[in-house]
Amino acid sequence: MKALVYHGPGEKAWEEVPNPTIQDPTDVIIRVETTTICGTDLHIMKGDVPAVEKGRILGHEGVGTITEVGSAVTNWKVGERAIISCVTACGTCQYCRQNLTSHCQTVGGVGWIFGHLIDGTQAEYVRVPFADTSLYKIPEGVTDEAGIMVSDIYPTGYEIGVRDGGVKPGDVVAVVGAGPVGLAVMATAGLHGASRIVAVDLDDSRLEAAKKDFGATHSVNSGDADWKEQVLALTDGLGVDVAIEAVGIPATFDACMAIVRPGGQVANVGVHGTPVELKLNEAWIQNIRLSMGLVNNVTGEMLLKMIAEGKMPVEKMATHAMKLDEIMEAYEVFGQAAKNKALKVILKAE
Ligand SMILES: NC(=O)c1ccc[n+]([C@@H]2O[C@H](COP(=O)([O-])OP(=O)(O)OC[C@H]3O[C@@H](n4cnc5c(N)ncnc54)[C@H](O)[C@@H]3O)[C@@H](O)[C@H]2O)c1
Ligand SMILES: [Zn+2]
Ligand SMILES: [Zn+2]
Fold first, then answer.
1. Whose CA is nearest to atom 15 of ligand 1?
2. Which residues constitute the domain of residue 162?
3. 90-103 residue pLDDT tens
């Protein structure tokens, strides 16, 4: 089969590799029909995620059809279609049982393994371990383009941003970073009753999209010299209740710390490749709470219900559609997202 193989920082190729086979009785093999590229894949390409070894097939989002089923799989049959969760969960270890599947002990202590510790979904076929507890059924009326948003970005935005960020009814929420993940935070902040949702980014077209299609009520370009004052003017002057970081660089973490109010919370969603300075000497006296994490993807079924009922903006997230074998070009398009006005680039097998 063909797959997108990582060959070290800055190096990748769409090349011929052996097809995956069932290795454990809890595996299935899926023919990937729809996949996409994540901001995290760009971090991997920069060398920010050193655990990814040369030769690894990238990708952790996908929708497809099951072509082979291991002998211990009970929930799935050949020919059924599924959404692949970016987090693999055995379902029975101590962490899985407390919904902290991102640390599934059975898969090695980090639940995100696709395109990281095992071969991923940017390929014609993928092996899915623990299929019974790591795949979602596709509800009626949910397209592949909508369903794939539940592989990673909507659960990430909701679980790590909104839910773990402690968003409450009436809160003013700022989301720094209006990429697909930040937009997913904005799209799901209404589930917890945010009153104002302020999108912060350097890219005006993403700020426009945030307001038009993903639930942001206001936007501020953080390239403006007075961006912080603009955000504070949207609160009672004290700062936002919850500031959510969805970029993954020190500057945007600092931005969140600069706009959160005393007693508020900073929720870090971005994947950081370098250390970030935590100015505890300034933050302690503000009673700031700080949260962060790797998505567990335990809210996918709830999100799929909302999507199926048309209660969750997803359809504008897929801005580009390309063929799976055009994935090298797709990385260029997504890598220069601002120039190309790209959110998610959807790749379809023929
Ligand atoms: N915690 C998790 O489990 C998890 C899961 C998936 C993705 N992520 C991470 O979430 C982050 C966002 O992912 P994405 O796919 O949306 O990425 P992306 O690169 O598409 O979007 C990042 C956005 O940040 C903006 N930006 C860059 N520098 C900025 C600055 N100085 N000020 C304001 N905005 C700035 C960009 O214009 C862009 O819109 C990434 O770090 C990704 O690795 C985390
Ligand atoms: Zn991702
Ligand atoms: Zn587990």
1. 39
2. 156-292
3. 999 999 999 999 99
